[in-house]
């Protein structure tokens, strides 16, 4: 059990982690900080946190586990604010959707204190944000990727694995580079496409009329276009190198389809469609793996 959890960023992700640890009996007290006082006040009223901290540094004071649930672009500033209280043995994690930029920021700021840092990315969320949507079950039966560094203390890597496992998550290990390459393909590019596709429809002269005719297929395809714009602005910029590689691959696949359509080559079109259709029909989401399983080169 942890004595105190310090949550920096009392929104959906940070609030859900606090509730999950409370429900599992893993923490005695939760101290929370957000830039907006109204957010932490609401978090306390909802029972998500027990004590309001007036700064990020005070949220770390006395905590033996700390979660940074801030936008990836704010990681470096946040680490600078708390650096002096990151003591040996304190487990510090983030929940950012990109990892190379987070790790680089941690190396610059934490220096010798980086041994306490276990970068993490829970594959969980909702289209709605805010502390009012915090859910103790958000991370249950979800994968969490951790990308520990060579300097990270092994006992803290194990502690991070144990705490995520205790709230129902399946923990995988990857390098930051493999993580960002993989999620550019399976998460960041789909969001980019959903934003672009919805925009292309709604901005046509008759776009609003077209939307009135849309059915479940359109709803399912564009669901993630309703995601938080500020969050996804930061993610897409932070992982732009890998994202643009995936965007190029997608454009090549789309060009091939457009070419055979333009030529009216129905047989070739069917062949190009059949492979992804069969692949998608046979695909299943990954089954739970043992905690701490490594993926790729990690």
Key features of this structure:
4-stranded mixed β-sheet; single chain; 6-stranded parallel β-sheet; elongated; 298 residues; 10 strands; alpha/beta
What does this structure look like?
The protein is an alpha/beta fold and 298 residues long. The protein has twelve helices and ten strands. It has helices spanning 12-23, 37-45, 56-60, 75-82, 100-110, 154-166, 176-202, 207-212, 216-222, 229-238, 240-263, 266-282; strands at residues 2-8, 27-33, 51-52, 65-68, 91-94, 117-118, 120-122, 143-146, 170-173, 293-294. It has a six-stranded parallel sheet.
User: Mean pLDDT, rounded to whole units?
Assistant: 94
**Order of the strands making up the biggest sheet:** 3-2-1-4-5-6
Task: Profile the largest sheet.
Answer: 6 strands, parallel
Name the helicity range.
40-55%
What proportion of the residues form beta strands (DSSP E)? 5-15%
How far the N terminus sits from the C terminus, by CA atoms, comes to 28 Å
Instruction: Give me the secondary-structure category.
Output: alpha/beta
Q: What is the helix tally?
A: 12
Overall strand count: 10
The low-confidence parts are none
Shape estimate: elongated
Q: For the CA atoms, what is the radius of gyration?
A: 21 Å
Would you list the SSEs in sequence order as H and E? EHEHEHEHEHEEEHEHHHHHHE
């Amino acid at each position: 059990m942890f004595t105190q959890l310090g949550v920096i960023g009392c929104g959906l992700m940070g609030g859900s982690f606090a509730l999950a640890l409370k429900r599992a009996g893993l923490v005695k007290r939760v101290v929370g900080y957000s830039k907006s006082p109204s957010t932490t006040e609401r978090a306390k009223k909802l029972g998500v946190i027990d004590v309001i901290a007036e700064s990020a540094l005070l949220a770390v004071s006395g905590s033996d586990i700390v979660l940074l649930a801030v936008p990836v672009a704010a990681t470096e500033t946040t680490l600078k604010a708390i650096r002096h209280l990151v003591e040996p043995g304190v487990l510090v994690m983030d929940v950012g959707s990109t990892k190379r930029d987070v790790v680089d920021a941690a190396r610059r700021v934490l220096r010798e204190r980086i041994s306490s840092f276990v970068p993490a990315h829970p594959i969980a969320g909702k289209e709605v944000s805010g502390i009012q949507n915090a859910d103790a079950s958000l991370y249950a039966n979800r994968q969490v990727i951790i990308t520990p560094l060579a300097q990270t203390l092994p006992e803290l890597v194990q502690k991070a694995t144990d705490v995520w496992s205790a709230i129902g998550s399946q923990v995988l290990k990857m390098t930051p580079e493999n993580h960002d390459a993989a999620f550019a393909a399976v998460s960041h590019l789909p969001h980019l496409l959903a934003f672009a596709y919805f925009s292309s429809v709604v901005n046509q002269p008759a776009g609003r009329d077209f939307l009135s005719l849309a059915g479940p297929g359109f709803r399912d395809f564009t669901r993630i276009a309703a995601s938080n714009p500020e969050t996804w602005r930061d993610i897409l910029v932070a992982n732009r190198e890998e994202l643009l590689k995936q965007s190029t691959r997608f454009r090549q696949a789309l060009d091939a389809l457009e070419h055979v359509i333009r030529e009216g080559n129905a047989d070739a079109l069917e062949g190009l469609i059949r492979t992804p259709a069969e692949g998608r029909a046979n695909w299943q989401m990954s089954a739970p793996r043992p905690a701490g399983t490594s993926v790729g080169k990690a």
